[in-house]
Amino acid sequence: MIPVAFDYVRATSVDDAVRLLREHGDDAKLLAGGHSLIPMMKLRLATPATLIDISGIPQLNTVAVNGGRITIGALTTHAALAASDALRASAPVLWDAANQLGDPQVRNRGTIGGASAHGDPAADYPAALLALDATFTIAGAGGERQIGAGDFFRGMFETALASTDVLTAIAFDAAPASAYVKFHHPASHYAVVGAAAVLTMNGGTIGAARIALSGIGDAAFRAGSVESALTQVDTADSAAVRAACAGAAAGSEARSDTFASGAYRAAMADVFAARAVALAAGRTKTRR
Ligand SMILES: Cc1cc2nc3c(=O)[nH]c(=O)nc-3n(C[C@H](O)[C@H](O)[C@H](O)COP(=O)(O)OP(=O)(O)OC[C@H]3O[C@@H](n4cnc5c(N)ncnc54)[C@H](O)[C@@H]3O)c2cc1C
Q1: How far is CA 155 from the centre of its chain?
Q2: What predicted TM-score, i.e. pTM, was given to this entire model?
Q3: Please, are residues 220 and 228 in contact by the beta-carbon 8 Å criterion?
Q4: Residues in the ligand 1 pocket, defined by CB under 6 Å
């Protein structure tokens, strides 16, 4: 449980972090909250020669709501998101995810940027960010670029980030009729199955739905067939909601491990997708 020896440098700005990443090459890693990277280093699953600490860059620790568009700096902690009334009102799906993530220590140190960059298949934010159709802003050697959530999460511990990239911000449109629910692992609180729903409602009927799932396959994914089946469903008809959510995991190969089989994960995907839809729909009436 002792990491391989490494060098440590602090970045003072995003440009400085990109410069340091280029200078130190593939052997360097960014350090944000350290709650995924440090455990991996202690297990020697990661052996970076240099850690570039970005946690002191102030511009990346912000939650801004502007005319229905929410922009979150990559260094915003899970605890800050969980405590944000603005996020709760505008995008409860992400607020739910932040509140259910890990334990207080993890929430106080871990960041949304680190959690997204890490690409853990059982992480909570990827489902919420896919359902929000979020846009990721990335600073790299070639300047700044933006990429959609659908192209960002690529596989198990794999994202669109290159080794000299810094994720700086994540933005999305307000989605008040939204929710995230999960069946958490009792030890780690990671998602065995996590389901995010973002709904556009016409009265009590679903006009459009974006449904995304975490914990099931190698990466979070959108449940396209469920999204289509939910269109025009009256959310007061719980049997119709459940029927539309059947086969939610069809787009992914469900993983088996010592805690849950793939078949069990797939069955729970249907259940939790329907719960997320019901909770999101209920938020059009009262905030819960
Ligand atoms: C006990 C425990 C329980 C947990 N439970 C949950 C849970 O229930 N749900 C869940 O979703 N997560 C859970 N986590 C993970 C937690 O959310 C981590 O905080 C998160 O995955 C990583 O964020 P971090 O800021 O700590 O990143 P770090 O550990 O500092 O970095 C993680 C990786 O991302 C890279 N990185 C960090 N920031 C950036 C950036 N801005 N741009 C580019 N690359 C970057 C790093 O180089 C590294 O490769 C848990 C962790 C622990 C230790």
Answers
A1: 13
A2: 0.97
A3: no
A4: 29-37, 39, 74, 101-102, 106, 109-111, 113-115, 117-118, 120, 123-125, 161, 165-167, 188-190
Domain 61-173 fold:
3.30.465
Among 79, 118, 117, residue whose Cα is nearest residue 97: 79
Per-domain boundaries in the chain:
7-53, 61-173, 178-282
Atom 13 of ligand 1 has which residue's CA nearest to it?
102
Tokens of 157: 């511990």
Which tens digit of pLDDT belongs to each residue from 155-187?
Answer: 999 999 999 999 999 999 999 999 999 999 999
203-216 b/e (C-beta count within 10 Å ≥ 16 → b) = eebbeebbbbbbbb
Please state which CATH number belongs to domain 178-282.
Answer: 3.30.390.50
Instruction: From the options 3.20.20.30, 3.40.50.2000, 3.30.43.10, 3.40.30.10, give the CATH code of 7-53.
Output: 3.30.43.10
Give distance in angstroms: CA of 124 to centre of ligand 1: 11
Euclidean distance between CA atoms 7 and 93, whole angstroms:
38
Q: Is the dihedral of CA 128, 129, 130, 132 positive or negative?
A: positive
Which of 35, 37, 93, 168 maximizes ligand 1 atoms within 8 Å of its Cβ, making it the mutation to test the pocket?
A: 35
